[in-house]
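Query form — protein Palmitoyltransferase

QUESTION: What is the three-dimensional structure of this chain?
INPUT:
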Amino acid sequence: MVLISAEMACSFDVIYSTRPFKFLTGPICTLIALNMFTHYYLVFCPQPPKTFPDHLLWALHERPTDGYAYRAFSSLENGLRGDERAGSLNITEITKCRKWGKMRPERAHHCRICNRCAMKYDHHSPVSLFSRMNQCVGVYNERHFVMFMMYVCLSTALCVLLGYQQFLNALGLSFQVHFRAISCPVIAYLLTFILSCVLCFAVGIMLIVALWSVMKGETSVEAQDHEIYMKVALSRGEAFINSYDLGKTQNLKLFFNMGEGGYPIYTLFIPFRILPYTDGRSWARRDGFERHHGVSRGEELTDDEIDENDL
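ANSWER: The structure tokens for Palmitoyltransferase are given below.
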């Protein structure tokens, strides 16, 4: 966050001061920065509230919440949200954690770092050069994680596209634009520009992989499991079909919880916190499917470090 904050400060100081129509570009740049930092913060807040959220930072749902209150999840029947949309919304089966030996909802996965099960576990975001998250990414914060990556890519791409002339001038390779800054040292701008290039490339690849998984209706862990399921199904002369895959467009709508029964489109541009379409105990499936085709009961791989020989 220190690196990203430094990049944003240098961008506003050096690049924004040279842009025309500041009254228009200023609010847009501020909104991009606000989205990036807010979604980063919301990744740390994956736990759901015990009552339906009524707070300024929460987006308003498109339909009334009467009879649909977001109560404590003591009953599986409270798990269905957005049942107007295509596909069947089914209560998932209860699976057993092979690490703890405890029961948990389907699509849950044991995180060996946190030593607990997370619903719709995608991955554990560790402490790294570009991230201080150290947080499981699952059903309640995966949307904010993807949105954070989207706005990181957008902000760094704009920094590179709009600031390359200043970068060349700071290196003495161009004299078309004078390097102007209020308080940003030249070396700081050079380093943050290079950082923006690296972040845009690295996070951009991560974003493409994440969105592709979303469009296929699977998490990164499930994508690895599905490759094994395909081999097992093929060995029996069957075809594996992911029952969570409702089509690329519908998968995106459900992931971002938009469209009929979900949230309005402005939630992609204003950093409100929103609920997923499910509480992790029920999932939208293809019509006519109660489970994956080509996988028999008890063959599911839902825990880390499970070898395919365990099938």
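ADDITIONAL NOTE: Residues 80 and 307 are 33 Å apart (CA to CA).
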